[in-house]
Predict the structure.
Amino acid sequence: MSDWPYPNPIHLSLVGIHATHDAGYTVDRRAGTEEYLFDFFDTPVVLQDGRERRSFAGNVFILYTPGQPQYFRAEAPLTHTWFQASGDGIAECIEQYRIPVNQAIEMPPPEFLASLLKEAHRHTVRKQRNGEDAVAETIRSLFRRLARSLYPSEVAELSPYQKQVLAELHAVRAQVYRDLRRRWSVDDMAALANMSAQRFAVAYRSCFGTSPIDDLIDVRLRHAEMLLRHLPLTVVDAAQYFGFNTGSNFHVLFRERMGRSPRGLAKSGDKSSERLITPSLHDEDLLEVSEAARRVNLLYIQPAGYWSFDRFDDHSVGDDLGKHPRAPFHNTVAPTPGRCGGTALLLDGNSYAVVPDTVVDTAQSYTVSAWLRPDRWGRMTAISLGNFHHGAFYLQFIDSEGGFKFAVTVSERDPFAIYAPSITLSETGVWHHVVGVHDRPAREIRLYVDGKPAGRSRFETPWRADGPVYFGCCQVMDTFMDHWAGGIDDVRLYDRTLCDSEIAVLHSGDCAGRAGKESR
Amino acid sequence: MRSLVPPGEIQIHELAIDAIHNRGFELDVRENTPYYTFAHYNCPIVLEDSGGRREWPAGVSVLLAPDTPRYMRAESADLLNTWFHCSGPGIAPCLTAYGIPVNTVLDLGELPFLRPILEEVRQERAQKALYWEDAVSDLIRRLFRELGALRADLDNSLTPAQRRLERTLRDIRAQVHSNLAYRWTVPEMAALGGLHPTWFAMVYTRQFGTSPINDLLDARLKHAEALLGNLPMTVARISADCGFANVEHFTRLFHKRLGYPPGQVRKQSTRKGA
């Protein structure tokens, strides 16, 4: 840290913008200059490049360091843009942005060069207060943009327009997923995105790797599988429910894509899930169950969404209750051993998963519960839900702000955050049970860490978000940021507040319940 | 060789441009703010700073230091504000160098630079091109610099008209000195800012300590000297490039003002190069 905004100044002494010279113009300075010389040649030129002299067809630049012999000669009329500058700030810039020196580099004409040089020169002659800093900043910006042109492929980023298209596709997909019984056509879907059907299909395939209709059939089959496994339905019921014309068409598709017969699935049924589901289906049984079972029912069956992450493929993960579409992964997501048995989501600080559904209404009371294992220090978001502009809530780990944090934003248009932080953590790589509660009637938010209350804050202005749920990042102004590096397990979202005792049960009960499931 | 210290980093955590709330909106955060918050209000607003709590007219700005209370309430109109949270080692030097007080409401009126800079920050954050963190740091430094300049302008007890005039003169000087080859006349210069020539010459001399033509000649000769020392152009070409119609006139003036003839500069630099 230093005491000046720009500890190393940059002085601009001479500037030539699109300067012209006659044919035969030659510069030959054996001892170089005392300053740095940057020169971009629009027209053909012969340059000293290292030990030899080479001729270039134009669109080439060279940056000479002080004392370096300079030679260039134009056989034809010459146009070039150049500047001489001095000061330690130049050396710092060159090093920081890895600008090659004393060698000729060919590149397309940098359109920013003339305008930034004019700006820097203007700052030099205008004699404004702190004008030196303005010059330093402008020249730094010039070198930074030069570096971006020189190393373009290092970050393959989407343009804002591409991002917008991507966001629209995700939104359309979420809407389609929410209404699987409707007989969607590609035209209908394209209309939602204001695109032509053809363009929509192409964009959809490039974004999700599958055609819109195939994707729809897949998700319907996955839902049918979930229903068949958990509910006492016939195959024909399931087929009709999802709008398949005939049972046999459904049967063929199911066999083809899921690799087995739907009938076999309906008969065998997953016993463990069945046991959990049954009480809610038979009211007379429900009357018999004990208070403990009722609590289990409320905590484990009623969440608006539950992701145990015990079963997932390379590309996506589904929720255990079958209420939401599968969450596709972005970048590398791997399974990691869960907190006690099973598996958890392992994110590498770049990857994240998106549940294309607004699982809870953030304007009302809700609870978000998860087991989190931060693997490094820093600023990371485990779970967030918001609109495309910013989150309505973030469940985060921020070491500089005290550890875990449950943050909510004050309005749809304003990302100002109010939050309840936790006590400071002493180590990373350890699982913690973290719960954020929004209590609408009490007008406050609460944070629980490892079953105990950790912090609370007043919150007056809840708003309803309509975006997807993110595991492992948050979206702030079209940007995915604060990526999670570490494990995420057993995420539950409830559309109500959980009381202190329920959260304590979740904290202590998860392990026991999981151990029981494993031993069966 | 001594090690080079790059400018300290500045991170933007969150930012909002023209965020809107209904009248009556209140925010009261007492603790847990590990970052600086800058806010500019386009509406009358009740704020709390080191001088206590009171209502301010539209157009005030405030920079709150970490761990100071954040309080605002839109009492008499809907709330329209632009704000950002930032932190990092680069902030403190900016505040000192550019003279920006913290926890003090500044009544600076419109901030014309605020929106373009923040839009650019937003763009950088969205695109994440190479060295975008650095670009964001530089942009925020620029914002603080502009803020400091505006504040200093308002503090130097000039009337708004005087301030406008001063800015006009700087702009004219920048335009004139960016094109040294052109044969400028005082009326032409004055016309750039829509001023009367006599009046222009008078206020120019008062501001820069030298008359417009003398200032221009000095700049031309300085440029010519640099060119003579650096480029293999003939003295005639250089004198033409620097806006002198006549080489003899150039040589005479050069000798008179700088104390040695142009040829001497050329000879010295050739000896050095050989």
